[in-house]
Specification:
By secondary structure, this protein is mainly beta. The chain folds into 3 domains: about 50-120, OB fold (Dihydrolipoamide Acetyltransferase, E2P) (Beta Barrel); about 160-290, Glucose Oxidase, domain 1; about 310-370, SH3 type barrels, CATH 2.30.30.30. Helix content is about 10%, strand content about 40%. The chain contains 5 helices and 29 strands. The strands form 6 sheets. The protein has a 16-stranded mixed β-sheet that branches. It is elongated, with a radius of gyration of 28 Å. The relative contact order is 0.17.
Length: about 375
């Protein structure tokens, strides 16, 4: 049977989910291997070096750079508060002194005899990493972080933004083709992960933000509305750091597209369960997909369920088209021809024959990704 390797979009109702929670710099791990954790549990912490403030003392005192050290009032390595005297000239008969005050709280890190610049480093910036989801600490990386494992639902979207969030799952529509509207969102949904069907408008999404909804999961969204939310045109860089409060996960693509039947059915089944989401997306090398994780209550038997790792498509595989003109459509592979075929661009590529809505299409294999369902 023909077989092709392609990126897989996972829609798994029962799998072993493993999330690496790693610090940006080495620090302290706060939990032991085997410990049960909740999403808010801080599992590791560290401190990033504080910001650096440059003060041109030579210019401010109107002295030569090589003479700056003799006018300093604070020793290297000592703490200084904002507004404290940093350096001062002797003046004339004790009068007409020139002085420099510290612009920030920090530590005096260096004094240059060449430039006359003084470096003050602000206080270290604390960084804490939480567990993200309910689970068990299956691995501890010394001074770096942990791996959290859990049995649960794992669904990937095609695009997202807004980073990590969590809350109770609320499915607000009756079917996957129904649009999520403003009237469906109420104040009691603050902190919840809400699910729509085919689309959410800009105004509805803004209402979700104003209410304090944790995340919105929906089939489609208008691409041009992203600029209104973000304040800039979205490029190909990684998303997830946007400070918009409410994460957005699009499961199908841009436009009004019904959510995939399997994704919707799974979310409907687990309506009311506590859910963790991450809108981070990267579509270049090192692909990162937005995700929805619904951990099961039972985390004892983590080895009983294994992630499907074959990573390939065959005849009968469920696939999603990831480039125009059929972007976002889901179909079934009917054939994987061995011979190369010429596309409209005149390039010769390997293709797959895919049935979408009872119509047959010939699509380059590079334009497909597998939808994993088990």
């Amino acid at each position: 049977m023909a077989h092709a390797y392609t990126p897989g979009l996972k829609v798994l109702e029962s799998t072993s989910v493993k999330k690496e929670r790693r610090l940006p710099l080495k620090g302290e791990v706060l939990v032991d291997k085997g410990a049960d954790v909740v999403p808010e549990k801080i599992v590791a912490r560290t401190h990033l070096p504080g910001n650096v403030q440059m003060v041109n003392v030579a210019n401010l005192l109107n002295v030569d750079a090589q003479d700056v050290p003799e006018f300093m009032l604070i020793d290297l390595g000592k703490n200084i508060l904002k507004g404290d005297l940093l350096a001062e000239t002797k003046g004339l008969f004790g009068l007409f002194k020139s002085e420099v005050k510290s612009p920030v709280d920090g530590i005096l890190e260096s004094v240059s005899k060449v430039t006359g610049q003084v470096v003050i480093r602000e206080a270290p910036i604390p960084v804490e990493i939480d567990a993200y989801m309910n689970g068990n600490v299956s691995e501890v990386m010394d001074k770096e972080g942990v791996v959290i494992s859990s049995n649960g639902v794992f669904i990937q979207g095609i695009f997202g933004m807004g980073g990590e969030n969590r809350g109770d799952l609320r499915v607000l529509v009756d079917n996957r083709e129904e649009e999520l509207t403003e009237k469906m969102i109420s104040n009691d949904m603050k902190g919840c992960v809400i699910v729509g069907g085919s689309h959410i408008s800009l105004n509805t999404y803004k209402k979700a933000i104003s209410v304090g909804v944790a995340a919105v999961v929906v089939g489609g969204f208008n691409y041009h509305d992203l600029e209104d939310i973000l304040g800039y045109t979205l490029g190909v860089a990684i998303t997830g750091s946007e400070e918009i409060g409410t994460s957005l996960i699009i499961t199908e693509g841009y436009g009004k597209i019904p959510m995939g039947a399997r994704s919707f059915d799974i979310l409907k089944k687990y309506d009311g369960n506590f859910t963790s989401v991450n809108g981070a997306t990267q579509i270049r090398a090192g692909v990162i997909r937005p995700e929805i994780v619904i951990p099961f209550n039972d985390v004892d038997d983590l080895d009983s369920i294994v992630m499907n790792s074959e990573g390939g498509i065959t005849e009968g595989s469920l696939v999603r088209v990831i480039r125009s003109p059929y972007f976002g459509h889901i179909g079934t592979v009917t054939s994987l021809p061995h011979e190369l075929q010429k596309m409209e661009s005149e390039t010769m590529v390997r293709v797959a024959e895919v049935k979408i809505d009872n119509q047959d299409f010939v699509i380059p294999r590079a334009n497909l990704e597998m939808v994993e369902t088990s």
